Automatic annotation (TrEMBL):
Signal peptide (residue range): 1-22
Source organism superkingdom: Bacteria
A Pfam short name: Peptidase_S41
Family annotation (InterPro entries): ClpP/crotonase-like_dom_sf, PDZ, Tail-specific_protease
UniProt name for this protein: PDZ domain-containing protein
UniProt entry keywords in alphabetical sequence: Signal
Residue stretches making up the PDZ domain: 449-517
Keyword Signal carried by entry: yes
């Protein structure tokens, strides 16, 4: 027995350091240091470049999600410098692209033996001649005909043209091309030769990630239309500029055989032209050394942690037949002691003594880049760490490359990835994951970036999905109970609270403290949008069925009342029935003689003819734009009924993204023009427009359009300041969010984002307004209208 006991003690002693090591390892994963975080962030940045710019993604043959899922585990298990390099290398190797890789620090050594010999013409036999024509001989204007003289052409059947240079010289290299190579190729072709051209991604904004898998990227009735809405609404295309060479009428060289010798120091036009000529099987081509990257496309170089450098292909060279082209016939390298000229001539002689080897049949590349919907990995469980980081990387890169409002983010978005990585690592349960997503989407301060849980709505089922049965509003810096909801299950407790009571605290936490705590979790472009979201949804929020102690000041006395939270949908329904939210019908009516009223966001375009006829005799019309429109075209169409002439009412800026190098990207501007409708009933009238914090996005555009065609007076409170088509971004675990896909501006350059709609007469609501259900904004508009009509207010109509 003692022996067994001693053995157990020994075993425990052996296991103790192992357990301690495992604990430290787990703790390191949960609490990574700044170096580890930087490496994980760099992994996400590299993935972002691949995801949006690598050609394999555009062809739909590569699952970019799998690049993270399959490879980031290497880094998480071994966050050292070597583990980082291994993970990055593995991800790049999955591209099946040998040209995208971790860059070697070794300088490329190019053997320039035998180059820059000057102009030499050497007859090899009765049928072939060797000509060296490096770039420096064209310094003084040497041209093709002085090299390939009329005397040489008839007597020789084969030409070996050595164009190698010893260094890059842009000026002389271009002369070598224009004075010799270009005219020579013109004599060798029977029809126009299109040089290979770069095909790269073109993004006008970012396509939403949740579009159907079977969508027609370009609808049948829009075939051939590559303008405007194509990118944002349907998909992506590529854009490039090509060069070409025309055939010469000179037939003297068309029957001759040519072999060209080049290296990486020849001019880019020379190499592209010769590769195109070889692709047509009209010459042989010998390349000394390694081909330059540009013959395979464009590359983006990234400096990463630990001094690591990677290059990622972001485009590819497409030849005139739609393929990726042919390789040179031979690559040669010189070994020590070898005679370069002898080796070259031997290889060239062999090629010229045999028929030109025809290019292998290659697949024609698709002509339009595509993108596939982002998978959201639905699961009842919290996504694992790989998927959580996938969602983080996806959102960060989308904002980094495509948000037109990134400059409005208060904090540095470049540092945001490192800030959120530890939060997503620790988000191992539902609440932590939900809060991490809330903070991430709130960070960009864009009122469009609402976080949605597909099964639960604003929050997952069973988590923060309830509200106390009271309505609150902020008035003059204080929070007041402005409505008591009809919750029959707790009437007794609710009776202890009165409308107009000041809300002091919830569960002993002051409401001012709660507001500060929620600032980083509630999305909004501005303070008005924050207040709308916070006081309507989140202040009294908690798990459905949970209770809270509400502290109020009622008639000078402070009291505590315990209330239970009801399901949020039930809360919304009950609060919608309070006086404050009751919309009076009809939504188009006469308020007074000569004064018309339209609640435009409750109307439809097909109603405008009859409604305009009803208001045709009005001198003034109040356009109530509050609320979100039922008909997305109502603002534009109504503006056309009012417009007297074509008017530019706004302009939109779209991110024009063609490269991961932000300095190379631009913005595209599209002007919003309202053209007058033939209906004249609403023209030449005085207009008043009503706005409040509930107006956002399409609702804000409606107001901008109407302001642009009228000399309207706009009254109300600051709008949400979130406009420009909401672009969907998916997160693993059945979440999704949005961001504003383009930026909208007034013609004078004033942005709508953050600032909201321009307001002429601000209206500050009072507590009495909330308690009585008075519409102070409408009352103010009626008062202003009556002043204009009768020069003095008519109290009879102020509260209609």
């Amino acid at each position: 027995m003692r022996l067994i006991f001693k053995m157990l003690l020994s075993l425990l002693a052996l296991l103790q350091p192992v357990c301690a090591y495992a604990h430290r390892d787990q703790d390191a994963k949960q609490n990574p240091d700044s170096v580890t975080i930087a490496r994980i962030a760099d992994f996400g940045r590299v993935w972002g470049v691949i995801n949006y710019f690598h050609p394999a993604v555009g062809k739909g043959v590569l699952s970019t999600d799998s690049l993270i899922i399959s490879n980031i585990g290497r880094l998480l298990d071994d966050p050292s410098a070597s583990g980082f390099k291994t993970a990055i290398s593995a991800m790049l190797s999955n591209l099946n692209d040998p040209h995208s890789a971790v860059s070697s620090k070794k300088a490329r050594s190019i053997d320039s033996s035998g180059t820059e010999q000057g102009l030499t013409l050497t007859s090899l036999d009765s049928e072939s001649i060797y000509i060296t024509a490096s770039q420096h001989i064209f310094k003084n204007g040497l041209v093709l005909d002085s090299v390939l003289t009329a005397k040489l052409i008839p007597s020789n059947r084969c030409f070996i043209i050595d164009l190698r240079n010893s260094a890059i010289d842009n000026n002389l290299g271009l002369k070598q091309y224009t004075q010799f190579v270009q005219p020579l190729i013109g004599k060798l072709i029977n029809r126009t030769l299109i040089l290979p051209t770069v095909r790269s991604f073109y993004y006008k904004g970012l396509m939403r990630e949740d579009f159907p898998h079977d969508i027609n990227i370009l609808p049948q009735d829009k075939m051939g239309d590559l303008n405007g809405m194509l990118q944002v609404h349907y998909g992506l295309r590529n854009i490039s500029e090509g060069s070409y060479l025309l055939s010469s009428q000179d037939l003297s060289l068309k029957s001759k055989r040519f072999c060209f010798i080049v290296n990486r120091y020849v001019n880019v036009n020379t190499l592209k032209a010769l590769l195109a000529l070889r692709h047509r099987n009209l010459c042989s081509l010998i390349f000394q050394g390694e081909m330059p990257d540009y013959v395979y496309g464009n590359f983006h170089h990234m400096q990463l942690s630990d001094g690591l450098t990677v290059k990622i292909r972001t485009s590819e060279l497409i030849y005139e037949d739609g393929t990726l082209g042919s390789e040179p016939d031979t690559y040669i390298r010189f070994q020590p002691g070898e005679d370069p000229k002898k080796l070259i001539l031997k290889e060239a002689g062999f090629l010229l003594s045999h028929p030109v080897k025809h290019s292998a049949s290659t697949q024609v590349e698709n002509t339009v880049y595509i993108r596939k919907p982002q998978f959201d990995y639905p699961s009842k469980e919290v996504p694992d760490l790989k998927l959580r980081l996938l969602g983080l990387f996806n959102f960060w890169n989308a904002i980094y490359y495509f948000s037109p409002n990134k400059n409005l983010i208060p904090n540095d978005w470049n540092k945001a990835l490192s800030h959120f990585i530890p939060k997503f690592i620790k988000a191992e349960n539902d609440s932590l994951y939900f809060l991490a997503l809330m903070e991430l989407t709130t960070f960009i301060q864009d009122g469009h970036s609402i976080l949605i849980n597909k099964p639960g709505g604003r929050s997952p089922v069973g988590m923060m999905d309830g509200n106390l049965p009271i309505g609150t509003d902020l008035v003059d810096g204080k929070v007041f109970v402005t409505s008591i909801l009809e919750d029959t299950t707790q009437r007794r407790n609710l009776s202890e609270i009165q409308q107009g009571d000041e809300l002091i605290a919830i569960d002993k936490v002051p409401v001012t403290t709660l507001a500060r705590q929620w600032e980083k979790l509630i999305l909004a472009s501005n303070k008005s949008g924050f207040n709308r979201e916070y006081y309507f949804t989140w202040l009294t929020n908690g798990n459905s069925g949970s209770s809270a102690v509400v502290t109020v000041r009622s008639k000078g006395q402070i009291k505590d009342v315990t209330l239970n939270r009801i399901k949020r949908d039930h809360y919304y329904n009950l609060r919608g029935k309070t006086n404050r939210f009751t919309l009076k019908e009809p939504f188009c009516r006469m308020l007074a003689p000569g004064i018309g009223y339209m609640r435009i966001n409750r109307l439809y375009v097909h109603q405008l003819d009859s409604l305009s006829n009803m208001l045709k005799d009005c001198k003034s019309i109040i356009l109530d734009a509050r609320g979100y429109p039922r008909d997305s075209q109502i603002g534009t169409k109504l503006a056309s009924y009012i417009a007297l002439k074509p008017d530019t009412v706004a302009y939109n800026e779209f991110p024009f993204v063609t490269s991961p190098d932000l300095a190379k990207n631009q913005s595209l501007v599209e002007y919003e023009i309202i053209r007058p409708d033939s209906n004249t009933f609403l023209k030449n009238k005085k207009y008043y427009i009503l706005v409040d914090e509930g107006i956002q996005s399409q609702g804000e555009w409606n107001v901008i359009a109407l302001q642009g065609v009228t000399r309207a007076t706009t009254l109300g409170t600051q709008t949400a300041g979130a406009n420009g088509m909401a672009i969907t971004i998916n997160f693993p675990g059945q979440y999704f969010s949005f961001f504003s896909g383009f930026a909208e501006y007034y013609p004078d350059g004033t942005p709508n984002q953050k600032l909201g709609i321009k307001i002429d007469i601000p209206v500050n609501r009072t507590l009495q307004c909330y308690l009585n259900g008075d519409d102070e904004i409408l009352s103010k508009a009626v008062s202003e209208t009556l002043k204009d009509l009768y020069r003095k207010p008519n109290k009879r109509y102020l509260h209609q």
